[in-house]
Every structure is written in structure tokens, then in C-alpha cells.
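Entry 12.
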Amino acid sequence: MLYFSRALKCLFKLVVLLTVVFVAMSLTGTLETGGLPLLKALLASTRGIILMAVIVLWSAAYPFTSFTRMSVRMAWDEERIVNAFAAYAYEPESRSEDKMTFRAKSVLRRVLWQFDDRVTVTRDGGFIDIEGLKRIVPRVETRLKAGVR
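Predicted 3D structure (C-alpha cells):
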């Protein structure tokens, strides 16, 4: 279900981006037609169909290319985990005995990362599993491993 929602969010964002580009082109006069005739022309041409196919394929690949899960062998130390995330401007969103969730502190960063900034840390025996964006998970993993040695 998480994969499906991430793919749909990506598809929505790409369609909005394409719409903004077409509206800007229409307002600046670089586009000869607009609205429904543009949509008909887009779907009737080979280029338009290829563009739509690329958008759908990219949306389907996005969850695989942008998210990861890594494990670190270490004891469950909440203070150290919180400090590792704080170094990258993340703050705890929720905590339980075996699970912690972090979000970016900055609203701007959340918007730039399209509200897919949530990182989950779970205890798994002598390991902790970190799951989230590929932009942040490897950095936190490296920081936690450096603290272990």
C-alpha cells in the first residue's frame, strides 16, 4: 500500500508540473493552443503518448529509486539515534518502545522533498532498521556506524 501511495503522489506531482509548464507557455504566447484542444493534440500525437508513458513509468519507478532500508548493528540507544537525526535537521515525530519516526524540522525542506521526508527507525534484535528517503538514510547510517566504532 505504501508503494502505491508513493507512486500516485509522484504521478500527481508530475501531472501538476506538466500543467504548470503548459499554463506558463500559454500565458507567454509560446503555445498556440490551450485547454481541451491541447489535451486532444497531446493524446493524438506520438510524442504526447510517449510523454504520458514516461510520466507513468517514472511514477512507478519512483518508490524503488528514492527510498531505501538499511540496518545498523547496535544497541537501541534513543539519545544517540535522536542526535544522529538532529545533525541532519530531523526531529522525532513519534516514539514507542521499539519504533521511532522522524520528520524534517523545516517546512521548506518538507515541501522540497514533497512531504516524503518521514524516516522510520525500528529495533530488530541487535540491529536497528532505518527506512526512508535515500537522501537521508545513508547519512544517518554512516553517523550511527561511526559512533559504534
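Annotation: The chain has a mean pLDDT of 86. Residues 72 and 141 are 7 Å apart (CA to CA).
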